[in-house]
Structure formats: structure tokens, C-alpha cells
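Chapter review: from sequence to fold.
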Amino acid sequence: MTEHLVIDVDGHVFEPDDLWERYLPSRFHEGRPKLVLDERGTTRYLLEGRMIPPGTGRGAWVPEGMRESTVHREGAVDPKLRLEDMDIEGIDVAVLYGAVSLGFYRMHDRELSVACCRAYNDWLHDYCQTNPDRLKGTPALPLEWVDDACAEAERSVKELGFVSLTVPSRNGDRNPDDPANFPLYELAEALDVPIGIHAGGCRFGHDMFVDSYAQLHAIEFPFNGMFAATTLVCGGVFERFRSLRIALLESGAGWVPFLFERLDEHYEYRAQEMPNITRPPSEYLSDGRLFVSTEGERGLPQIIDQAGSDWLVWASDYPHWDTEFPNSVTRVERRDDLNPSVKRQLFESNPQRLFGWA
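The C-alpha cell string follows.
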């Protein structure tokens, strides 16, 4: 037992294939997402006629299959089993992200995209209703159409009780500081919820690797975090939106001291090329509105020594292939190189600030 709450800022569910028959209007069933077998017999998604993600070749992703890599515990689809696993782990509250739904922002059919987002969000709401005090949802949003995305975001928070919005680190040609995204940031401020930027969806660098998933995954996720942090801070998003809170998820935290030292150096010599900010980039990190998740990497003491700990939040990544279940919490709690106050920050006080619960 810990002496503080344990809040998991990035857990995952997996969309069961019958979700779409149950929650998606029948007129969309022909085009609905389908979990299918590829030519090797591994599970992939068929979405708008495209098989995603590729299992072999350029940009190959989880060659063992989508369900096989994503569902290492059946709590991904069964909330009662998830709550049992949370009790085993010692997790009090889990904030939940999807799997295929993380890619709905890039669908091409507007009506289908909106309908799939709504169907998934309704399913996730019902999943969370098993224990709404402990299971907290984040929505899929049709981000190609910002007005639709804002409408669904507002519904998800106000009607479904979701606690954060969700975007990728880049949407097509739109970087995080693109003014097209501003209505969503304004809405997040008005709703008093953060935005979670989840790594992986926009496939940075995937075309540079052939049948090399481990290498691609290792480098792509941190790059997603660095790219998002750079464009958000240096592009002036935090300068413009003074109460916006953002979490960068599943990219590790070891890059944070390196990146912000480098950004500060460039600001010192070339501030005129960062016209949308008024202070060194590291000061925006110190403001306490940009958070980065960690699963408890070994270098945390050095990271904290260089960049502080007010921005760090903890995540389990349950139930994916790289989760540490059933030791995700205990392997951090038992560390003697982190003092109790830092552990409380990681697990409780920083997540509470992130979600506006403090």
C-alpha cells in the first residue's frame, strides 16, 4: 500500500470488434473498422478500405499483430477485470486511451469519422461506468474537421464525463502550433480539461525502417514528444493560451533536459526566430502547464536533477506489450533513489494538477 493516491495518466483499452454493431448506426456498418487477419494471419485493422498498420515491409508495426501486442491483459476490453488488475497493481485511478481509435483523426470520410468517434466514445463511457470514480475516459475526435472535433469534445466532457481531450503530435500538415488547432485549445481552457498528446499516431520516420519495428518504436515515440514540445513552446501556444494544460504521453522523459537546454541555447542566440515567445523555452516548462509521462525509467534521478520534477507524471501503458504489470507501481515505489516527495508528485500531486483535480 502506498501513502498517496496512484493516478495512471495513460492506460489503454482495446476496441472489441462488436463495439461497432452495438454503438455505430447501422448505415455505417459497411465502412466500420474491422479487426481482420492479414496474409500472415496476424490481426490488423481494415479502416476505409485500408489495412493498417502494415505488419511487414516499410514501416512495419507490431509484427505479432494488433490485438496480440495491445491486449496482454483482458482488462483492455473488460472493465471488471481491469479493476481487479488495478487493485493488484495498486492503481487508484486510470485515465484511458484507445487503440485504433487513436487513428480516427486521419479518416477521410467525414460522416463515418464523426460516427466512429461518437460510437467509440459512447462505448468507453459505458466501460468507465463500471466504476466512474476510478475509470476516466478520453475521447477520439474527428480532428480533420475542427468544428466537428470541438462539438464531440464538448459532448465527451459535458455529457460523458471524460477528463481530457486527445490529439496526435501532428495532424497531417498541421503542427501543434497551427492556428487551425486554436479552437480546440480554447475549448480545453473553457472546459478546464487538459489535452493529452499521445505518441505514435502520426508515424514520424516510419518510411525509414523496413521490418525493424523495435528500432522504429524506440526512436519514433520520443521524437513525437520532442517535436510536440518544441512546436508548442516555441510556436507560442503556451504564451497565447495562458491556462492550457498539455501532457505528452508515452514518449519517456529522458529527452526533456536535453531538449530544453538546446532550445534555450537557440533562443539565446536566435530569439528573433521565435517571435511568439517572450521567455526562454525552459521557463514554459517551469510554469507547470506542460507535463510529460514516465513509466519509471532508470535515469529519473538525473532527469529531476537537471529539470526538476513538477512536470513529471506516471503512466502504466497497461495492457500493452511493454507494460510492467503486475509491478508497474511497485518497481517505482521500491526505488531508493527517489525520495517520497518525488514519488507523491509522480503518482498523485502532479496528475491532480494536470487534470485540474487539485
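Two observations follow directly from the output. The two ends are 22 Å apart (CA to CA). The longest strand covers residues 7-12.
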